[in-house]
Each structure stands twice: as C-alpha cells, then as structure tokens.
Amino acid sequence: xxxxxxxxxxxxxxxxxxxxxxxxxxxxxxxxxxxxxxxxxxxxxxxxxxxxxxxxxxxxxxxxxxxxxxxxxxxxxxxxxxxxxxxxxxxxxxxxxxxxxxxxxxxxxxxxxxxxxxxxxxxxxxxxxxxxxxxxxxxxxxxxxxxxxxxxxxxxxxxxxxxxxxxxxxxxxxxxxxxxxxxxxxxxxxxxxxxxxxxxxxxxxxxxxxxxxxxxxxxxxxxxxxxxxxxxx
Length: 233
Description:
Layout: H1 14-35, H2 57-64, E1 71-75, H3 83-90, E2 95-100, H4 103-115, E3 121-125, E4 138-144, H5 153-163, E5 164-175, H6 183-192, E6 195-202, E7 206-213, E8 227-229
Parallel strand pairs: 1-2, 1-4, 2-3, 4-5, 6-8
Antiparallel strand pairs: 5-7, 6-7
C-alpha cells in the first residue's frame, strides 16, 4: 500500500497579503469612483443617509442659520438628510421647497416627512438650471453635495441668485468625490454670478460656504464677518 504525502503549504508572506488587500481596496475604490454617476442613483440611496465628516448638522445650522417663518429651497435633497433637519426649524409658518430631477428621491423625502409629522415640505420635480420660481422668492437656498452633479453649475448659481429675496443667502456644501467642486472654482463661479462670500467653514476637501447677492439690501448683516475656519463645529 502506497502512502500519499503532500508537501506543506508555505504561508503567504505578510507583504503579499497586504499587497493583495491593497489591490482589492484600490479596485473597489476605482469601481466606486467610476460608478458614481450623476444624478446619484436611487438604487444606492442608503449611502446618502450617512453623515459626512465636517458637514455636520451643527455646522450646517451655523452657516445656513434657519429661522422660524422663513421659506427655503433645497436643491438636490437626496433622501432628505438635510431636509428633515432644516424643515422643523422653519416652523409651521415656514416652508421648505425641495427640488430634484428624480421623482423617486422626492417621493422618498415625502414619505419620511409624513413619518416625522412634517407638513411644511413641498416637493418639485425640475432641473436646477431653470428654477420654476419667481424672482426674490426665498430667504435662503442651499445645496449639499449636489451642485457638482448638475451640468452647467454656473447656471444653477445664477438661478439661485435670481430667486433669493433681498438679503437672502445661498449655502453650498461640498465633500470630495467624483463630482466635487473645489472651493476655488466655486468662489470664481459665485463671483461671476453676482454672489459674494460671507462665511466659509471646513477644509478644501469638505466645506460649507455662504454667499449673498452682491449689492443687495442686507438688513441682517449685523455682526456678520467673513470667516475661514476649519475647526469650528
């Protein structure tokens, strides 16, 4: 009877294991980067509910400054992470319009609004390059990680400036991804759209910035100053 013997399997060197893991991670990152389409697909909506570092609710409140009774517009609400935080602060006399090109996203936001007992959110399906609102309608307009997904960002900014009421404010939030808009580029586009910077929070890769129409009557500017800060919550 012959005995079958096998040679011992040599352990995989740690360096090789790390190389394989790094390669797999790079492949996943590449797939995520190349698969990050615009507008953001509804099928991947779960990721939209993950709070982003530096774009916290506290920083959003500090830059946007929602007040009871105001009317605001959110461009690209996704699944409503920001909407459901801002709308309660506007109170029953206030109103939050949410605008998105995808009806599925709007339906998702409204289901969550009903669940939370919020009756002051109004959905509108439209492209942001031609906002379906009258001039000087809103006290504030904001878009968080949405501007870079919209073609012709400069048109979006011009439209936002058009629909802002005197003294109104525009808040843009960006976080580094495939559609990220650098702060330098945003600042140039805003200048060309008749908007001037008043506040910036965060780093170059994750920031919130507030703008106002140039030359507009600004009754609420008391105590406001230009701020560049990367550490304040």
